[in-house]
Amino acid sequence: MSPAPLSPSASSTRLLSLDALRGFDMCWILGLSTVLSQMLNRAFPGSDVVTTITTQFKHVDWAGFRFYDLIFPLFLFLAGVSLAIALPRRLARAGRLSTIRHLLARAAILVVLGIIFSGGIKNGWDQIRWLGVLQRIGIASAAAGLLSLWLNTRSLTITVIAILLVYFLVLRFGFGGGTFAEGLNITNEFDRMWLPGRKYDGDHDPEGILSTLPAIATALLGLLAGKWLTSSTSPWRKVTALIASGLIMLALGWAWHPFFPVIKKIWSSSFVLVAAGWSALLLALFYFIVDVLGWRRGLAPFLWVGSNPIALYLCSGFGFFRTISERLATTPPPPYDWLPSALTFALMLATAQWLHKRQLFLRV
User: Closest by alpha carbon to 103, among 1, 215, 26?
Assistant: First the structure.
């Protein structure tokens, strides 16, 4: 998703905090949440505090927001930040036409990888899952990148606002609109009518057609954050503005919630703002710690994972780490039944370190 990590002296615009935060984000979906949940439940059985914590490692059923609902939009937000760093370099080096071809090719590769990741054609053409997580990352980030080639910061901001408002108006006042319940809203109905193949939730998909539009807004918000971080403004002003914008988006998102609920599965406009608000706050924190203070102690695992997120995600999704773990150790009895998950996560980290040490990166 990004150029190979460079030392700070090699690139004045390289943000190590971006790799660290991306790695932090990916670690949770690559097994950290499972390991932590199992260890806490084993150490403190029946604890209400532990239940509250571990509940955050599960998606909400429909409306609402938990920590685990942040993982995907945070990654897409960071993909936008990466675009703000990489596209100006490519434009200067190769020109606009080459940059456009690169964005489109990258999107196509991610779509193909996403289809393969979801099972490909092994169960027949009618069972292909055409849209999914990787497909959304490819399409939304490519759209954000293409828009940034022609629009300035102000126009991009207006575009984000327009996307969120239009999406709300379509769902609220469009044909058969007015309801946001699962299976009854226009987004789900659009998938039923127009999305071929297998859908993740029966006749509709959380990464469906219409909800890709607000996902583009998520990538654009990340791109705007990246443009701000790579500007000539002082580091303290960058951190302050990120915190302020994050708090404002959180406030706006939750204020919108009674009228347009925060729903990840349809990527509602209020969800975009809440997720982007938390993303901006986390980016401010990591930027301050890693790039302003220069503190890297204890963050190496996040840097390893953040340098190869797509490769590790694919390996984990195909069960490579779990398969090796099962061959190395059988399931132990309680209270050590959390060890297989821990071993699987450790194997992922070891692979990430091995790739990082040898400067091997999957570039898409």
Answer: 1
DSSP collapsed to 3 states, 143-195: HHHHHHHHCCHHHHHHHHHHHHHHHHHHHHHCCCCCCCCCCCCHHHHHHHHHC
Query: How many helices (H) does the chain have, and how many strands (E)?
Result: 15, 0
Exposed/middle/buried for 8, CB within 10 Å: 0-12, 13-18, 19+?
exposed
Task: Provide DSSP, 43-72.
Answer: HSTT-HHHHHHHHTTS--SSBS--GGGGHH
Q: Name 211's Cβ contacts closer than 8 Å, sequence gap at least 6.
A: 187, 265, 266, 267
| Angstrom distance (rounded) from CA 249 to CA 270 | 9
Tokens representing residue 315 in the block: 């390996």
* Integer Cα distance of 335 and 43 in angstroms: 8
Q: How far apart are CA 169 and CA 96, in angstroms?
A: 34
Q: Which tokens go with 54?
A: 């571990």
Half-sphere exposure of 108 (CA within 13 A, CB side): 6
Tens-digit pLDDT profile for residues 14-63: 689 999 999 999 999 999 999 999 999 988 988 999 999 999 999 999 99
Query: Cα separation of 214 and 210, whole Å?
Result: 8
State residue 262 phi and psi, 5-degree precision.
-75, 105
Q: Is 119 left (phi over 0), alpha (psi -120 to 50) or beta?
A: left
Q: How far apart are CA 231 and CA 300, in angstroms?
A: 26
DSSP 293: S
Which tens digit of pLDDT belongs to each residue from 215-273?
999 999 999 999 999 999 999 999 999 999 999 999 999 999 999 999 999 999 999 99
- φ, ψ of residue 263 to 5 degrees: the values are -135, 115
pLDDT digits (tens, 9 = 90+) for 131-180: 999 999 999 999 999 999 999 999 999 999 999 999 999 999 887 678 89
Question: CB under 8 Å to 100, separation ≥6 — which residues?
Answer: 146, 149
Burial class (CB in 10 A: 0-12, 13-18, 19+), 59: middle
Instruction: Give the integer Cα–Cα distance in Å for 57 and 36.
Output: 9
